[in-house]
Amino acid sequence: MEAKKPLRIGMIGYGFMGRTHSNAYSQVNHFFDLEYKPVLKAVCARNAEKVQAFADQWGYESIETDWRKVIARDDIDAIDICTPNNLHKEIAIAAAQAGKMILCEKPLAMNTAEGEEMCEAVEKAGVANTVWYNYRRVPAVTMAKQLIERGLLGKIFHYRAQFLQDWTINADVPQGGAATWRLDAEAAGSGVTGDLLAHCIDTAIWLNGKLDSVSAMTETFVKERTHALTGLKQAVSIDDAATVMGRFSNGSLALFESTRYARGHKALYTFEINGENASIAWDLHDLHRLKFYDYRDEGPLRGWKSIHVSDGDHPYMKSWWVPGLQIGYEHTFIHQVADFLKDLETGTPTGPTFRDSLETQKVCDAILASAKDGTWKHI
Amino acid sequence: MEAKKPLRIGMIGYGFMGRTHSNAYSQVNHFFDLEYKPVLKAVCARNAEKVQAFADQWGYESIETDWRKVIARDDIDAIDICTPNNLHKEIAIAAAQAGKMILCEKPLAMNTAEGEEMCEAVEKAGVANTVWYNYRRVPAVTMAKQLIERGLLGKIFHYRAQFLQDWTINADVPQGGAATWRLDAEAAGSGVTGDLLAHCIDTAIWLNGKLDSVSAMTETFVKERTHALTGLKQAVSIDDAATVMGRFSNGSLALFESTRYARGHKALYTFEINGENASIAWDLHDLHRLKFYDYRDEGPLRGWKSIHVSDGDHPYMKSWWVPGLQIGYEHTFIHQVADFLKDLETGTPTGPTFRDSLETQKVCDAILASAKDGTWKHI
Amino acid sequence: MEAKKPLRIGMIGYGFMGRTHSNAYSQVNHFFDLEYKPVLKAVCARNAEKVQAFADQWGYESIETDWRKVIARDDIDAIDICTPNNLHKEIAIAAAQAGKMILCEKPLAMNTAEGEEMCEAVEKAGVANTVWYNYRRVPAVTMAKQLIERGLLGKIFHYRAQFLQDWTINADVPQGGAATWRLDAEAAGSGVTGDLLAHCIDTAIWLNGKLDSVSAMTETFVKERTHALTGLKQAVSIDDAATVMGRFSNGSLALFESTRYARGHKALYTFEINGENASIAWDLHDLHRLKFYDYRDEGPLRGWKSIHVSDGDHPYMKSWWVPGLQIGYEHTFIHQVADFLKDLETGTPTGPTFRDSLETQKVCDAILASAKDGTWKHI
Amino acid sequence: MEAKKPLRIGMIGYGFMGRTHSNAYSQVNHFFDLEYKPVLKAVCARNAEKVQAFADQWGYESIETDWRKVIARDDIDAIDICTPNNLHKEIAIAAAQAGKMILCEKPLAMNTAEGEEMCEAVEKAGVANTVWYNYRRVPAVTMAKQLIERGLLGKIFHYRAQFLQDWTINADVPQGGAATWRLDAEAAGSGVTGDLLAHCIDTAIWLNGKLDSVSAMTETFVKERTHALTGLKQAVSIDDAATVMGRFSNGSLALFESTRYARGHKALYTFEINGENASIAWDLHDLHRLKFYDYRDEGPLRGWKSIHVSDGDHPYMKSWWVPGLQIGYEHTFIHQVADFLKDLETGTPTGPTFRDSLETQKVCDAILASAKDGTWKHI
Question: Is ipTM > 0.90 here?
Answer without folding.
Answer: yes
